[in-house]
Amino acid sequence: IFVDQLEELITLADAGDAALATTALWLVLDAAPGLRLIASARSDFLARLATLPGLGDDVTAALYLLRPLTPAGVREAIVGPARITGLAFESAALVDELVAAAGAGGGLPLLQFALAALWEARDVGRGMISEASLRALGGVAGALARHADGVLAQLPERLHPLARHVLTALVTDDGTRARRRADELADPTRDALGVVLEALIAGRLVTVEQTGGAATYQIAHDVLVEGWDTLRGWRGHAIERGVVRQRLARAAAVWARLGRPSDALWTGRQLAEAAELAPSELPAIDAAFLRQSRGAARRRRLIQRGLVLGVPVLVGLGFVAARAIAHQRTAAEIAGHVAAADAAVVRAGGQARAVSELRTKAFAAFDARHRGDGEAAWDEVLAGQAALDATYRAASEHLEAALALDGAAPEVRRRFAALLFDRAVLAEQVHRPIDRDEQVHRMAAYDDDGAQRARWTAPARLDVTTDPATAAVTARPIGEPHGAEITVGAHAELAPGAYQLTARVPGRPDVHAPIVVARGESLALRIPVPAVVPDGYVFIPPGRFLYGSSDDEDMRRTMMNAQPLHSVPTPGYVIARHEVTFADWMTYLRALPAAERARRLPHTAQTASAHAGAFVELREPAPGAFALTIQPTSQAYTADEHEAVHYLSRTTGADQAWPRMPVSGISWDDAIAYGAWLDRTGALPGARPCDEHEWERAARGADGRLFPHGDRLAPDDADLAETYGRQPAAFGPDEVGRHPASDSPFGVADLAGNAWEWTASVSGDEQVVIRGGSWYHNPLAARSNNREPSEPELRAIVIGLRICASWPRP
Fold it and tell me: Average pLDDT in the 740-768 region?
């Protein structure tokens, strides 16, 4: 059962009906154990939904928070549907403007409305959405306002108050859409109501449904409630009137209870707030209180006019003096908050420098393979970051208090914008993107002169040289597959972010160099373009990348076994595009003497396997001829070199040519020996198993992504436990390269799933580590920052090998 907008139990139903509905749902679910309920609700109503009977206890236990789309996701939501229909956007700048608008006030619903309007205005002949169409709509935000205000403008002016009444009545006090019958909106016998409703329905501002034989009306879209300035202003005014009426009712009740004394009547400011209230629309006691208050006020004004000629100077001086004293007190209070904030910012500056030094110390220890020293220093970093965060919060609280006293004070606003910039930088350093984006969003609201926005978006200066110098280098933003590709060279400027650089020389293999550049950074980059790269290998140029994990500390240390995320450089090297296959290994075996060949045959002991009941064995039934027996779980398969393994429970990918599968059942010593053989024979000079830095850079590129192709690994993207439905007889390795969706930024395949890969550890307390997960494990194991320390002697059905070599060879 799928229930959309569950919060309507709070916003539209009364308490009794809501309790009845959730109790009924619970009874249905309890009576049918196979049934599941999926309900969507706005996050700001979760606490109140949790109080409802039946489902309340499950709201928190079964909660799934849907995070906002990333900018890359918004971009794909814009261009993807257009691409499917053969429609194009006139320029990349137009798409950039639409993406940026999704992060502004109206968010995705406002963007949705604008895209619908752009679709209607598309140039069918050219198959194009033009910038002129968006300008004609008044931009993304203007599209909604222009359309809605235009619908109202078509109504006669005498009907505008009724339209205002109808639209505000269709919004609840909680700011959500309400359903109303015509008799709940106004006197249904009035012809004017029908005219207004017909105009609003024709203009797609209101929808009508038949419910229980009666027509009910509703605002057409949530975005109209908050995204249409006219309606938002009306609602604010209505809310203010409601608040005034509540205060009036309380004051009238007190006045009546005390015997209607004159000193309990309202005066000046209170009466000004109630100026729009008419006694005829109020209860009798409230109306009497309001009439007598207004009469008393008129009498006071007459008396004051009689006195005004006698004491104007005294009154004027008294008023000015009172204003001056109040202003002076406010200014002093603001100055106190600003001084406290400034002192906190000075402390934060010292703390930030100390934390930076500690980070440098910790990362240096990790990179020097002193893991214990690195973790001890990192504990100090975490403590320093927490203290720095607390100091920033204290400074923010003081500046927010000052702004509460005078929200327009320019110097306070300037200080607050600068502080929010510093907090955003800290959030970025500690890899808290949601916190960072929140601080940047708040910063924009207070950055009146744009100084902090300019700092945040300050371009990086990139100086690229190549060898040979004739190479052409282009850059494309990562995460924007259809973003514009630009040519870069010496003294190029790039907006902060991640880019895929590609160096091209005619007659030579292209070289990819993913980079991340920071705001205001000056980066000198040298990209060699080798004349030749060994067949089956990918050249990784010298460069830096983000190594390690930004997960919370428990997960980083105990599950990922990873260092804290930080930048690490590597020299140039080559890495195999695919894992070493059984075919590669058989070529190696055939080149060995008989005794050595028998020693290097891949195998696992059935009784000592890392996976109960699973084993693999490569046999040589005749000289130079090999056969494989593999039992991934409960089902064993045996095949010679010309036969495929046929997985019984697979509906796709059932037949796999096992010589193309990743070799497994080999130890670390076997891996070293294989690399030495490639080096000795000249097949790959300097061949060896990859170290962790080389493996992880090839997998992640430069930007710290979780998987080779992004931050999400779908079942079909790699050979994982979920790929073939977790059926026991469907588990097993695939041929290498069968899942190109998870190729890395360098074009390296199967770095997630299929088989774990032996790598040389870069931590001082380990020798070897396996990386990349396998066909038997879930996506968490396949994360590119996950590392599993292992025993060099281990032979397992899920562990294979990939080869690297320094290049060009020293």
Answer: 95
Q: Which of 301-310, 359-368, 445-454, 645-654 comes out lowest in average pLDDT?
A: 301-310
Mean pLDDT along residues 209-227: 74
The Cα 340–Cα 11 span in angstroms is 43
For residue 380, pLDDT beyond 90: yes
**Helix spans in 32-89 (H):** 46-49, 56-61, 71-84
**SS3 category, 546:** strand
Which residues have CB under 8 Å from 112's CB, separation 6+? 223
Question: Collapsing DSSP states into helix, strand and coil, what is residue 529?
Answer: coil
Residue 764, Cα to own-chain centre: how many angstroms? Answer: 35
| 129 φψ region: left (φ > 0), alpha (ψ -120 to 50), beta (else) | beta
| 3-state secondary structure (DSSP) of residue 665 | coil
| 542/551 Cα distance (integer angstroms) | 27
Q: What are 131-175's pLDDT values in tens digits? A: 888 777 667 766 667 777 778 888 887 888 888 888 888 888 777
Nearest to 802 by CA among 718, 687, 707, 719: 687
Distance CA(732)–CA(649), nearest Å, equals: 11
Structure tokens at 164: 């205002």
Contact 657, 738 (CB under 8 A): no
704 three-class SS: coil
For the sheet containing 497-504, what is the strand order?
A: 486-488, 472-477, 497-504, 511-517
* Cβ atoms of residues 544 and 527 within 8 Å: no
Determine the Cα–Cα distance for residues 553 and 713; give it in Å rounded to an integer.
Answer: 23
Concatenated DSSP letters of 177-246: B--EEHHHHS-TT-HHHHHHHHHHHHTTSEEEEEETTEEEEEES-HHHHHH-HHHHHHHHHHHHHHHHHH
Whether 662 contacts 753, CB under 8 Å: no
pLDDT, one tens digit per residue, over 32-78 is 878 888 999 887 778 788 888 877 667 767 788 887 788 888 888 88
pLDDT of residue 609: 41
What does the pLDDT read at residue 315? 46
Residue 106 pLDDT grade (very low, low, confident, very high; cuts 50, 70, 90): very low
753 Cβ neighbours under 8 A, 6+ residues apart:
713, 718, 719, 720, 723, 739, 742, 772, 773, 774, 775, 777, 782
- pLDDT for the residue 416: 95
Beta bridge partners of 214: 211
Residue 138 CA neighbour count, 13 Å, CB half:
12
Q: What one-character-per-residue DSSP string does 474-505 give? A: EEEETT-TTSPPEEE-TTEEE-SEEEEEEEE-
pLDDT at 608: 42
How many Å apart are CA 726 and CA 623, to the nearest integer? Answer: 38
Tens of pLDDT, residue by residue over 312-333, are 544 454 555 556 676 788 889 9
pLDDT bucket at 801, cuts 50 / 70 / 90: very high
As a whole-number percent, the residues of the chain with pLDDT over 90 amount to 52
Instruction: Give the three-state DSSP class for 464.
Output: strand
Token pair, residue 57, equals 């206890």
Judged against a pLDDT cut of 80, whether residue 277 lies above it is answered with no
Under DSSP, is residue 361 helix (H, G, I), strand (E, B) or coil? helix
Q: What is the enclosing helix (H) or strand (E) of 711?
A: none
Q: Is the peptide bond before 528 cis (omega within 30 degrees of 0)?
A: no
* Global confidence as pTM: 0.62
Spell out the residues 6+ positions from residue 713 whose beta carbon is closer than 8 angstroms to its own.
Answer: 706, 707, 720, 742, 752, 753, 779, 782, 783
782 and 718 in contact (C-beta within 8 Å)? yes
d(CA 685, CA 695): 18
Q: Cβ(403)–Cβ(409) under 8 Å?
A: yes
> What is the helix (H) or strand (E) element at residue 620, kind and residue range?
strand 615-622
**Going by C-beta distance under 8 Å and a sequence separation of 6 or more, which residues neighbour residue 132?**
none
What letter represents residue 496's amino acid? Answer: P
